[in-house]
Amino acid sequence: KKESDTLENLSKLKDNAKTDMENWKKLSEHVPKLEVQKKQLEINSAELSSANLSKETLETVLLDKKKSLGILYENKNLKQLLASFEEHRQHLKEGEDCPLCGSKEHPYSLNLPEMFSKNDIDEKIKELDLEIKSKENEKEEAVKKVASFNQQIINTNKNIFEIQEAITQLKAVL
Question: Which residues have CB under 8 Å from 157's CB, separation 6+?
Fold first, then answer.
């Protein structure tokens, strides 16, 4: 009976040793996985910072371009207003009062200065509209990148937590 108990104890010790070895092996596999996930978290965090900076820069550029576009539209409206006075200019006579401003001098009664007659504003508006659309597309992509990196960070943190939990459980058994 004593031999049987000893054999049984040895068998249990052997089984425990085998289980411990398997747990040590699992533990040794989790540690590198944890390091990989931590490294990935660093990379994702850096990429997130870069994507956020890019998004913020694009937002600033877009705001500036939209302000410039507003100014161009204002200038266009002013030029159209000046052009609407064309009819009045044609009826002005040197030495007679202008019905709009009262001036007796009418230097532009025949022709406007070139800066008022030249109409390149429409082309500038078109160019700026295209730039704004392009920057809005870039911003949209940057927003998607930020969201993607945020999700990757969430997933990586979840993976790290799960690996740390597994390590903690294995350490408790060992």
Answer: 41
C-beta separation of 30 from 170 below 8 A: yes
Distance CA 119, CA 79 (A): 8
**pLDDT tens digit sequence for 104-154:** 776 665 565 555 555 688 999 999 999 999 999 999 999 999 999 999 999
Distance CA 148, CA 126 (A): 33
Q: What ranges in the chain are assigned the alpha helix state H? A: 2-84, 86-90, 114-117, 121-173
> Full-prediction pTM beyond 0.90?
no
Q: Residue holding tokens 């009418």?
A: 106
> pLDDT tens for residues 30-62?
999 999 999 999 999 999 999 999 999 999 999
Torsional sign, CA 162, 163, 164, 168:
positive
Question: What residue has token string 């596999």?
Answer: 29
In terms of Cβ atoms closer than 10 Å to its own Cβ (0-12, 13-18, 19+), residue 156 is buried
